[in-house]
UniProtKB/TrEMBL annotation:
InterPro entries reported in the protein's UniProt record: IF-2B-related, IF-M1Pi, IF_2B-like_C, Initiation_fac_2B_a/b/d, M1Pi_N, NagB/RpiA_transferase-like
Pathway participation: Amino-acid biosynthesis; L-methionine biosynthesis via salvage pathway; L-methionine from S-methyl-5-thio-alpha-D-ribose 1-phosphate: step 1/6
UniProt organism field: Pinctada imbricata
Record-listed E.C. numbers: 5.3.1.23
Taxonomic lineage: Eukaryota, Metazoa, Spiralia, Lophotrochozoa, Mollusca
Protein name: Methylthioribose-1-phosphate isomerase
Keyword vocabulary terms for this entry: Amino-acid biosynthesis, Cytoplasm, Isomerase, Methionine biosynthesis, Nucleus
């Protein structure tokens, strides 16, 4: 078994089929953007950062076999493929942010008269290939900032963490976001225990996070989502740390369904609640969480497990894949690769960082 969700080498892209985990380790060849769109839609690869990386790398693979006669033709081709990839899953913003960034870049470079088709292709492909290393570096920084803050609160005493969904190596290029914070705590010998929720209905916690925790030999226990309140009442939880699919301007955060109720329970028990995500999950164009589009998944994903029915035939199902945690419940803060911010600070602080990068 392996934890390498994305294998990429010089134009060859393979993804670990996460629908088969934890019982089978099988890779799928992704040969073009249609293949990329399909593995994202079916959730054979999932997790906001991994979705964007696989989407863009599927375009790199396709670009290698694509001939364009002009830089304008190439830029329009890349733009249309990126627009298509964004439609696979609507809530996670990472693919949308990548599409915006690469569209702006390719159209700007294409308008330069001295640019050749060959060079333009190379610049964009190299930039996309670098997403893998950049994501890991960002995750490591997130992990360290998160561990610093949690250990400051605990007076450097080892901590018990509750996490939700899967935010580890399988959801990213490696290391992980919320699971990256947990990994950083473990690296400092400061992780007493980690609890992961099952994460119904798709069981990313039971299938994927539990698999990563066992693989990494972390002291870990699986709980049902419905046990979170009891857990916080009885088990001395030091912090809840989750990932994000989209953090909007006021700090409201869309993440895996079930996150919002964890934040409410954490507030009731005075447990700090953290969102851990690189800024690739930040969307400054939406003012607050009411306008985030929430993906609704097929009802069979809820009414059956691995094809075995678990609900009464004929019952209707409502299956939103994500919920929105209001900023005021994110009491620990939002941990980014630039540091930890309170939700209300995010807009100004990230605006300053982005502004100074441009200057
Ligand atoms: C680093 S991943 C953060 C989030 O993307 C994760 O918690 C999550 O909600 C994933 O949802 P999924 O539907 O499995 O793609």
């Amino acid at each position: 078994m392996t934890l390498e969700a994305i294998k990429y080498d010089e134009g060859s892209l393979q993804i670990l089929d996460q629908l088969l985990l934890p019982f089978k380790s099988e890779y799928i060849d992704v040969k073009d953007t249609e293949g990329g769109w399909n593995v994202i839609k079916k959730m054979q690869v999932r997790g906001a950062p991994a979705i964007a990386i696989v989407g863009c790398l599927s375009l790199v693979v396709e670009l290698r076999a694509t001939h364009c006669n002009s830089t304008k033709e190439l830029a329009d081709f890349i733009q249309s493929k990126l627009e298509y990839l964004v439609t696979a899953r609507p809530t996670a913003v990472n693919m949308g942010n990548a599409a915006k960034y690469f569209t702006e870049k390719v159209q700007r470079l294409a308008s330069d008269d001295g640019m050749s088709v060959k060079n333009l292709k190379k610049i964009i492909m190299t930039d996309m290939e670098e997403m893998l290393a950049k994501d890991i570096a960002g995750n490591k920084a997130v992990g360290d900032f998160g561990a610093d803050d949690i250990l400051t609160r605990s007076n450097k005493q080892p901590v018990c963490i509750l996490t939700h969904c899967n935010t580890g190596s399988l959801a990213t290029a490696g290391y992980g976001t919320a699971l990256g914070v947990i990994r950083s705590l473990k690296n400092r010998d400061a992780l007493k225990h980690v609890y992961c929720t099952e994460t119904r209905p798709y069981n990313q916690g039971a299938r994927l996070t539990a698999y990563e925790l066992v693989y990494e030999k972390m002291p870990a226990t699986l709980v049902c989502d419905s046990m979170a309140a009891m857990l916080m009442q009885r088990k001395n939880i030091s912090a809840v740390v989750v990932g994000a699919d989209r953090v909007v301007a006021n700090g409201d955060t869309a993440n895996k369904i079930g996150t919002y109720q964890l934040a409410i329970v954490a507030k009731h028990h005075d447990v700090p609640f953290y969102v851990a995500c690189p800024t690739t999950a930040y969307d400054s164009t939406i003012a607050n969480g009411d306008s985030i589009k929430i993906e609704e998944r097929p009802s069979q994903e809820m009414s059956s497990i691995n094809g075995v029915p678990v609900a009464a035939p004929g019952i209707q199902c409502w299956n939103p894949g994500f919920d929105v945690t209001p900023a005021e419940l994110i009491t620990g803060g939002i941990i980014t690769e630039h540091g930890l911010f309170k939700p209300h600070e995010l807009k100004d602080k990230l605006g300053l960082i982005n502004g100074s990068k441009k200057a």
